[in-house]
Design a protein that fits this description.
eight-stranded mixed sheet, about 80 residues, globular, ATP Synthase, domain 1, 8 strands, mainly beta
């Protein structure tokens, strides 16, 4: 799936990934390929991404939102 993580002033990440783990307001949750459409608020915490090459990356955030549909995921974070 295609993922783009943006801050108000920059793009943090833009690439393909197999898995994204996010800090939701009610706890962590994961999004995999072919996930149902989603819009959710994000809490302070860490985003974990497993790329198409199985490399892992993490990003600390203070909150944000995620919107996803048809293997296209957009995260707006602080």
């Amino acid at each position: 799936m295609k993922i783009k993580i943006t801050k108000p002033d920059s793009v943090l990440y833009e690439d393909e990934a197999k898995l994204v783990q996010l800090p939701g307001v009610d706890g962590k949750f994961e999004i995999l390929e072919n996930h149902a459409p989603i819009i959710s608020a994000l809490a302070e915490g860490e985003i974990r991404i497993v790329g198409a090459d199985n490399a892992e990356q993490t990003f600390a955030i203070r909150g944000g939102i995620v919107k996803g549909q048809q293997n296209d995921l957009m995260l707006l974070v602080q």
